[in-house]
Amino acid sequence: MSRAARVRLFWAAALLFAAGYVVACLELPPLGGPFHPYGERAVAAALGRRTANTVSSVNFDLRGFDTLGEEFVLFTAALGAVLLLRRTRDEHVSAPRPGRVLPTVRLAGTVLLPVVLVTGVYVVAHGQLTPGGGFQGGVVLATGLHLAYLAADYRVLRRVRPRAVLEVAEAVAAGAFALLGLIGLVRAGSFLENVLPLGTFGALASGGQVPVLNAAVGLEVASALVVVLAGFIDQALEIES
Amino acid sequence: MTGAVATGAVPNPAEVFAAVAVVLAAAVATVAARTRDPVRQAVVLSALGLVLSVLFLLVQAPDVALSQLAVGAAITPLLILLTVRAIRRRAAQETEAPDSGKNPEGGRGSGGGG
Fold first, then answer.
1. Residue A2 burial (CB < 10 Å; 0-12/13-18/19+)?
2. Which residues in A have their CB inside 8 Å of a CB on B?
3. What interhelical angle do A210-237 and A103-125 show, nearest 10?
């Protein structure tokens, strides 16, 4: 297809899409209105399971099986990335020389690192109460750890993230989610059925197995992202062809 | 989003903010698509991640906003920058440029921007 034909095709598709989008938006219920057919049912179900954060209740209780699938999507993607980025026979490793770090950057990183890690754990642990949960907290933990690289250098980062341990942790956490589902199958008759006490609404220990599943996802996401980033950083800094 | 406008009522502030965020997201996304240099694109994508997470927050989806902020504004640009660095480093090695592999802080400064 010639360039002019491609551009014409793009504009035709873009105009069609824009028209459809505008028509769809005109029919949307107003923001913050009283009409929430799905929300009302989800909130009622979440209250019944004593989970304050309805989104977590949907993700880890009402539709926990979907989340299991998503978790294994991430697991498989991380596995593929690590496999592709591994060191091949014709590549060799050279130790990167430490770079100069501005004192202010070093100070900011050193102060922020523990704060970010605590925030990550908080977001994972409060998934059943406030916005966030295993995925969001796991990403915060994984990115926060790399402040060690910004504030110090690559050798410090390698020490704070034992890659072999995290590779095992990722697999164990992904398996733990599936295992919890099987426990529900054996004890209560259906996969991922809650077998834990529901606890007090609004308390840290509430929502049955929602916090447990959040912890598993948090560990899995944090480990997977650190391992994937480690593969990318090794390729960018250490491995030479 | 424009439902209130369609029914003739005065749009509430939340809808106005959300509409502004939608337009902003479309503008930044267009800039990202038209940016050809991957390093610049990583920075624009980071900004797009930030705008999208604000949009999600304005339409009352804070869980999604948190995910978007972490993945869109931090992880994706970082992966792009690391990839560019690895490719440039190899290209430099192949042409035996004098600075090959001697600049470990090169990726670091730009990584902090994401």
1. exposed
2. 25-33, 53, 55-56, 94, 96-101, 105, 123, 131-133, 135-136, 139-140, 142-143, 146, 149-150, 153-154, 225, 228-229, 232-233, 235-237, 240-241
3. 150
* A231 and A82 Cβ atoms separated by less than 8 Å: yes
Rounded to whole angstroms, the Cα distance separating A183 from A71 reads 18
Condensed to tens digits (0 to 9), the pLDDT of residues A107-155 reads 999 999 999 999 999 999 999 999 989 999 999 999 999 988 888 888 8
pLDDT in tens, A25-67: 888 877 777 888 888 999 999 999 899 999 999 999 989 999 9
Question: Which residues in chain A touch residue B3, judged by CB atoms under 8 angstroms apart?
Answer: 26-31, 33
Determine the distance in angstroms separating the CA of A154 from the nearest CA of chain B, rounded to an integer.
9
Smallest Cα–Cα separation from A62: which of A210, A201, A204, A219? A210
Q: How many Å lie between the alpha carbon of A24 and the closest alpha carbon of chain B?
A: 9
Dihedral angle, C-alpha A171, A175, A177, A178, nearest 10 °: 150
